[in-house]
Predict the structure.
Amino acid sequence: MVPKQKGSIDLPTEGRKRRRGFAAIDVGIEANECIKIYLVNSVDEVDTADSFCFEPVDLNRFFGEDGRIYGYKDLKIDIWLNGISFHAYADISFQSTFNGSKGTTDLDPALKKIFGESLVEKKEEFLQTFTTDRHYISTIISHGEVVHCEASKGRDNTTQNLVIRMGLRSMPVGELYSRLVPLVFLNVEGGSAIDVTDPRWDIYLVVERKAGQSGTIDSKLLGFASIYRFFHYPDSTRLRISQILVLPPYQGQGYGRLLLETLNSMAIYENVYDVTAEEPSDYLQHVRGCIDTLRLLAFEPIKPAITSVTSQLKQSNFSKKTSKFHSDPPANVVEGVRKLFKINKKQFLRCWEVLIYLSLDTKDRLCMENFRACIFDRVKAYVLGKDVGSAGKNLTDVPNDYEHDMTFVMFRSRAAGGALDAEVDGNQKVKEEQLGQVVNERMEEIVEIAKKVSLHCRS
């Protein structure tokens, strides 16, 4: 990884020397503005105009406190990732360097933070990996457990899609994961590496396997998910989805759904307690919502409970009711869903809202207002807690020298009409507006999932 200097500029003559104490102004450049990432599967794809280029989520966090690179003019960094062995090579070029007020950024350690040992210094060595590591994935997965196998859609009979489960503590699998970590950094907001020495970690690999003309088998990694096994008292296990990523060239082709459906099937087969997800992205949550709602549509015990809720939403006027309407599913239904589908309660409640929406007449204005009121109460209880806003209790923010956004005081009001009451009323209004925005977003999510589910049912 040797920087290539395109050219140089003339040094200032003696008569044009900068005055001492003053350095050239260098505003720097954000890492995401000068770095391009290419994922390629052969030597022929390197340095070509049609190579697959994807935009990383956030490279700035690897380059100092402000995420900027200093000291280079016309800096360009092209990073090539071998989609077979997951080695990387950085092609760095710039017109010149100069000693600005911030100094010159050392690029090598910053890139090492991202790519680690998979970063190859010489281009010739990188190109050789396409030959020397051609069967890298095939060798790794040969010791794994095939938990799902299907014919690849739109391909001939010699191509299959496999889902393979392996323990991360194995040395070869741990090395593979270390080469995949850069893809986590590049594609997952705030992504971080997991501890591969912990025996409770498994990795699920989606692999395309194709038989070659000479009898060889070529395997290509399409995506992966890292799963942690928690102990659940007294004798069960909970599965937590920690990371799930489909490689950029293969996104939008159903491989993420394949991973989730396989995980659900394995959870049922092994009779674990339930399946959870660690800080899922909005898109992952959307896909999970679609999959789990479709599964629940066929669950007969849930239908009477849905009918009961929708009937009340159609007939009542919640704005005139003095008591809140409880739209939660019965406890026995929640437990039945967990036992049969391994869907945890929090995820089930999100699907429950979609199931109710699917049963409503969306043209009935009163019915939809009642439904939105239920969503508002659920969001409010989740965000503020059930006791906040109850009679006599108030919540207000107070100044703090350390964490301004994290400090609050709960107190009981003694008399109305004071300055403190006015401040509390103002804060409450702001909170209500913020809650309204969250509810709007949740309503949009429900509608989008319902549309996808309805289309799937009609197809």
About this structure: Residues 297-458 form one domain. The chain is about 40% helix and 20% strand. The chain has three domains: 4-131, 135-279, 297-458. Residues 5-22, 386-396, 401-406, 408-416 have pLDDT under 50 and may be disordered.
